[in-house]
Amino acid sequence: MNEVILLDFWASMFGMRVRIAxxxxxxxxxxxxxxxxxxxxxxxxxxPIHKKIPVxxxxxxxxxxSLIIVQYVDEVWNEKAPLLPSDPYQRAQxxxxxxxxxxxxxxxAGKVWTAKxxxxxxxxxxxxxxxxxxxxxxxxxxxxxxxxFGFLDIALVGFYPWFYALETFGNFSVEAECPKLIEWAxxxxxxxxxxxxxxxxxxxxxxxxxxxxxxxxx
Length: 218
What we know:
Elements: E1 4-8, H1 13-25, E2 30-33, H2 41-46, E3 55-58, E4 61-64, H3 66-76, H4 88-114, H5 117-138, H6 151-157, H7 163-170, H8 174-177, H9 179-189, H10 192-195, H11 201-214
Parallel strand pairs: 1-2
Antiparallel strand pairs: 1-3, 3-4
Helix pairs in contact: 1-3, 1-6, 4-5, 4-6, 7-11
Subcellular location: Cytoplasm, Cytosol
Keywords: Cytoplasm, Transferase
EC number: 2.5.1.18
């Protein structure tokens, strides 16, 4: 028995991470789209603590939190496409930067498309400064882990399709500020596992625009 179910929401950059990891490993799974305003009994049962997506259910057992799920997928299906580095130090570094992305990028991105006036300008600067740090960590490597696509790439690339909405609402260009990072993102998107797993940037923009209206920002 090897039943795999993913509880997810199409626009989630965290869900996109899990979809990419499963695609990299070639794992067949059942995808269940969640309505986050009306969460399913299955989601509430499988993630009673946070009540959030994504949740991977493997043979009836739930695993929550996207980075933990990606690591689980890498450990369980370890016969192909390793995601985490084999070297303990490099593995620790990858986890450090993935944690940095979770703690910094998400909040900063959220402020860019919800803030107004001076707050928005400060949010844009903070967001770009964070991306510049990540660009420095990338350096001249094709991927964060070196020559092969892996854990840290998965941790960040789910934010890439959101850049269009952030740039449009914030009136700035990520590529102008962080050209190497955009080059990296485009390179990642050439992989079928990534291109098929990422949400459409125009649809994300429309989704964000609707959210802004309901929040009274527009």
